[in-house]
Design brief:
Blueprint: E1 11-14, E2 18-26, E3 29-35, H1 45-60, H2 65-76, H3 78-81
Antiparallel strand pairs: 1-2, 2-3
Helix pairs in contact: 1-2
C-alpha cells in the first residue's frame, strides 16, 4: 500500500490515464475528483461491501436486514463504522 499526502489542488496519477485530484479538505472530509477512462469502474468501497452482502443473502437466504445494516454503517461515516 502506498500512502501519500496531498493538499487541496494537488493530484496524483495512476498509470498514464487515471488522475485523482484533491478538491478540498474540510472538517474531516476529503472531496476528490477522478478522471479515468469510462472502461475503468469506479466504486465506493461500501457499495462493494453491500453488493457482496446482497450476493450472500441471495445465496444463503440471509435476512435482508444485514444489507440494511451495512448501508446504515456507511451513512454514519468512517469514524463510526470502524
Amino acid at each position: 500500500m502506498l500512502i501519500l499526502q496531498r493538499k487541496a489542488g494537488e493530484s496524483l496519477l495512476i498509470g498514464e490515464d487515471i488522475e485523482i485530484s484533491v478538491l478540498s479538505v474540510e472538517m474531516g472530509r476529503v472531496r476528490l475528483a477522478i478522471q479515468a477512462p469510462k472502461s475503468v469502474p469506479i466504486l465506493r468501497s461500501e457499495l462493494r461491501s453491500a453488493a457482496a452482502t446482497n450476493r450472500e443473502a441471495a445465496d444463503e437466504e440471509a435476512p435482508p436486514m444485514s444489507l440494511l445494516d451495512i448501508l446504515r454503517e456507511s451513512e454514519e461515516g468512517p469514524e463510526n463504522s470502524r
